[in-house]
Write a structure and sequence with these properties.
Structural class: mainly alpha
Shape: elongated
Distance between the termini: 92 Å
Strand content: under 5%
Oligomer: single chain
Largest sheet: none
Radius of gyration: 33 Å
Helix content: 55-70%
Number of helices: 12
């Protein structure tokens, strides 16, 4: 049932002192709920309207205090405020859904390898033990690719190179500690790259939801273009990031000359280098 008094009449009673502030606000809420289809809430249930208005209470209170009778009636003023409040909420909900979709699509997609770390020069370290039989070369190779070597993997391969698992993990930890700051920079950059990828997907989804002849569509189109350009630029920079330990760092950890590390890695490269096929 609709309230007997309109919002304009309720406001007049408030101005005349017939209603105090609390009574006035309560009657406004009751009036909106009783006539919610007139206040741009047609597709919401009454329970959802109640929840929304309760959350909106502080802003609506401020709107009541800010009303100045400069032509528009109080009812039209409140309708206008609710229209923009609801539009703002729907926009936030839409953004949340787009963001969730973007994250899901990014993590589900297998067409883009940007989520993977930069691949090491020596890709299959486990299989390489059958190609490289020299224990020292395998050890140096492991330390070179420390960024991709887990403790579990180190324990598995330690027996093949005659090193105690604890000792191998100790060497890896020493190298990790020496390169901690650099690794932190790499991880932060990768996180920014991921965020930029999500941003591109979110812009694509929002662009599809806007009318092509609207000004918002044109602005979003420009934002998407710039976001893609930035993502491509960041991806190129990330592809050039070197996550390998330097030969000097490996030499310091093992306590051997740098030239020894250089020569062992050169020998490994020669063993895994594709041999030219005879015509």
């Amino acid at each position: 049932m609709q309230n007997r008094l309109s919002l304009d009449e309720l406001h007049q009673n408030y101005v005349l002192g017939v209603l105090n502030k609390k009574e006035f606000e309560g009657l406004i809420f009751k009036h909106i709920l009783a006539n919610y289809q007139q206040f741009y809430l047609p597709d919401w249930s009454k329970d959802k309207c109640i929840d929304y208005l309760c959350g909106l209470y502080p802003r609506l209170t401020l709107a009541i205090d800010a009303y100045k009778n400069v032509g528009a009636s109080f009812e039209r003023y409140i309708k206008s405020k609710l229209y923009w409040f609801v539009k703002e909420r729907r926009s936030r909900e839409s953004d949340h859904l787009v963001t969730e979709y973007a994250c899901w699509e990014a993590w589900s997609a297998d067409k883009d390898s940007f989520m993977d770390p930069v691949e090491p020069e020596y890709q299959d370290l486990w299989a390489m033990r059958t190609v490289v039989s020299n224990p020292r070369q395998i050890l140096i190779l492991l330390l070179k690719s420390y960024f991709f070597v887990s403790d579990e993997f180190a324990c598995r391969i330690a027996p093949f190179i005659g090193v105690q698992p604890e000792k191998l993990i100790e060497l890896l930890d020493e190298l990790r500690s020496r390169r901690f700051d650099r690794d932190q920079e790499i991880r932060k950059f990768r996180e920014r790259l991921h965020s930029q990828y999500y941003r591109c997907i979110a812009y694509e989804r929002r662009l599809k939801a806007r009318s092509e002849d609207s000004a918002h569509h044109q602005r979003m189109k420009g934002q998407l273009k710039r976001a893609r350009e930035r993502y491509i630029s960041m991806k190129k920079r990330y592809a050039g990031v070197n996550v390998d330990a330097t030969n000097r760092q490996i030499a310091e950890v093992l306590g051997i000359p740098k030239g020894t590390v250089d020569s062992n890695l050169y020998a490994v490269k020669q063993k895994i280098k594709p041999q030219p096929q005879n015509p």
